Amino acid sequence: MPKRLRMTRRFPVAMTNDAYRRLHRFAAEAEITPDEALCFLFEHFNSVTNAENLTARLRLFKAELEARKA
């Protein structure tokens, strides 16, 4: 029996327009809501990410972070 999807936690999220559009595009392509898309991505984080790519992308993101905040 599959585990029931209960949305029991809520938190305010701020994201860039690009991230927001990408989340909604992913949700639409998967035919699920953006909330369900976030649940899926975080519940299956290790299996949907490549550890090497994640590390490299995170390093680039952190290097650009101050410039993006301005």
Order of helices and strands: HHHH
Rg calc: 15 Å
Proportion of residues in β-strands = under 5%
Number of strands: 0
Mean pLDDT, nearest integer?
Answer: 91
Tally of contiguous helical segments: 4
What's the helical proportion of residues? Answer: 55-70%
Which stretches of 5+ consecutive residues score pLDDT under 50?
A: none
Task: Please identify the structural class as seen in this structure.
Answer: mainly alpha
Largest sheet: none
| Apparent shape | globular
What does the model show?
By secondary structure, the protein is mostly helical. 67% of the residues lie in helices and 0% in strands. The chain has four helices and no strands. It has helices at 17-30, 34-43, 45-48, 51-69.
Strand-helix topology:
Blueprint: H1 17-30, H2 34-43, H3 45-48, H4 51-69
Defining traits:
70 residues; mainly alpha
How would you briefly describe this protein structure?
With 70 residues, the chain is mainly α. Helices cover 67% and strands 0% of the residues.
